[in-house]
Specification:
single chain; alpha/beta; Metallo-beta-lactamase, Chain A; Rossmann fold; elongated; binds flavin mononucleotide; binds fe (ii) ion
Length: about 400
């Protein structure tokens, strides 16, 4: 049975939700599934805007067929070739062989790579500002290279004041029948997942996102239709504000993330003392044990908060493996502009702080506090003062 929802009179959501998926794209652990959006525009010409992951292909194909209602499909706009969207494109091309592909030149090349089909001679190769006139709708293509693949473009529909935004403004999580963000308490229930989605998938490409946001600022946008999660038709300013912050690597909140690793509990002990002291000083604290917290959670928290403490034992002359991975993930996402402190531990030659700092060295505009605390096995009672001094330094920095 088809399952569609109308965005406007002639724009219809034809996507689907996968609530069985527990790991997205081999890395990101999901607890509440994933939504894959695609849209059909029924105008004088019919247009399919993107396709979906093969996990929801059955529902999607049925939905498209229903919305077309026996009409032929004139155009397939391919905004992004990542297979969470394009894996059903081959099947759609077979079902609707007369439909003309509309995509960037780079995307056309990727269609060849993924499906062995050379569409470069037949596709409408969109460039910045190319307009597709479908009758009432005039669809203008806006290139968005490296948000977060090179072939990405977004599509502005001047008739509806609607932006098809590709992966931008997406979120992890399958909505429970809701299509519009205003049908749920988005900022209470989905913001964490939207932040995690942005930071982990697009976070490295902040400057490119800023370029796209600047272009979007010149358009009258009243509705945003992303490829995951919710359609935005109210309070666009609130989610735009988040995107402006995330893409500029500006923290949303002032407070301290303490991410620690600890094999026998010594490092953890030091972190608990630090956290309690920070709370006594009125500082907000979030703690993670990186042995059980997925890297993507710590990456997202590092984008959210202003101050970060990383604490780990020395491990075979290096940094404890889970912390090593977490820090490399943060560095790979190009985090900038945070204030960072370290706690190291080692029973014979503690060197993990220096090495943790080296892993984060490529991150720009970081401030490293010089109050590194070195624990030798268990924190000695005499080290309470050092931990309190670190708390004071963090508090002073937070207030600066
Ligand atoms: C596999 C392994 C390798 C280690 N390598 C080192 C090392 O190279 N240098 C060192 O000083 N301690 C090393 N240690 C010891 C721990 O760093 C040390 O016991 C530390 O106090 C553990 O802190 P924790 O109580 O927070 O787990 C190693 C421990 C393990 C399990
Ligand atoms: Fe993508
Ligand atoms: Fe995607």
């Amino acid at each position: 049975m088809y399952c569609v929802r109308k965005v406007t009179d002639d724009v219809t959501w034809v996507g689907g939700c996968d609530r069985r998926i527990s790991i997205f794209e081999g890395v990101y652990r999901l607890s509440r599934g994933m939504a894959y959006n695609a849209y059909v525009i029924t105008d004088e010409k019919t247009v399919l805007v993107d396709t979906v992951d093969h996990a929801v292909s059955e529902a999607f194909l049925e939905n498209v067929e229903h919305v077309l209602g026996g009409r032929k499909l004139d155009y397939i706009i391919v905004q992004h070739m990542e297979p969470d969207h394009s894996s059903t494109l081959g099947e759609v091309m077979l079902r609707y062989p007369e439909a003309r592909i509309v995509c960037s030149k780079k995307a056309a090349g990727m269609i060849g790579q993924f499906f062995g089909r050379d569409v470069t001679g037949t596709a409408l190769l969109a460039e910045e500002g190319t307009v597709l006139d479908t009758g009432r709708h005039k669809l203008t293509f806006v290139m968005a290279p490296m948000v977060h693949w090179p072939e990405v473009m977004v599509t502005y529909d001047a008739a509806e004041k609607l932006l098809f935004s590709a992966d931008a403004f997406g979120t992890f999580g399958a909505p429970d029948g809701a299509l519009f963000a205003d049908e749920v308490d988005f900022f209470r229930d989905y913001l964490d997942r939207a932040r995690s989605y942005y930071c982990n998938i697009v976070g490295k490409y902040g400057p490119q996102v800023q370029t796209l946001l600047k272009k979007a600022a010149g358009l009258d946008i009243q509705t945003i239709c992303p490829l995951h999660g919710f359609v935005w038709r109210k309070d666009l300013g609130a989610i735009l504000e988040k995107y402006l912050k995330w893409s500029a690597y500006e923290p949303e909140d002032r407070g301290v993330v303490i991410a620690y690793a600890s094999v026998y509990g010594g490092t953890k002990n030091a972190c608990e003392v630090l956290a309690c002291r920070l709370r006594e000083l009125g500082v907000r604290v979030v703690m993670y044990d990186v042995s059980v917290t997925p890297e993507e959670t710590v990456v997202a928290a590092s984008f959210r908060w202003s101050h970060l403490v990383f604490a780990a034992p020395t491990y075979n002359g290096g940094v404890f493996i889970r912390m090593d991975e977490t820090l490399r993930d943060i560095a790979a996402h190009g985090l900038r502009g945070r204030t960072v402190a370290f706690i190291e531990n080692g029973s014979w030659a503690p060197t993990s702080a220096k090495q943790m700092r080296e892993i984060l060295a490529p991150c720009r505009d970081m401030t490293f506090l010089e109050n590194t605390v070195t624990v030798r096995s268990r924190p000695a009672e005499a080290q309470r003062e050092e931990l309190y001094a670190l708390a004071d330094a963090l508090k002073a920095s937070l207030e600066a």
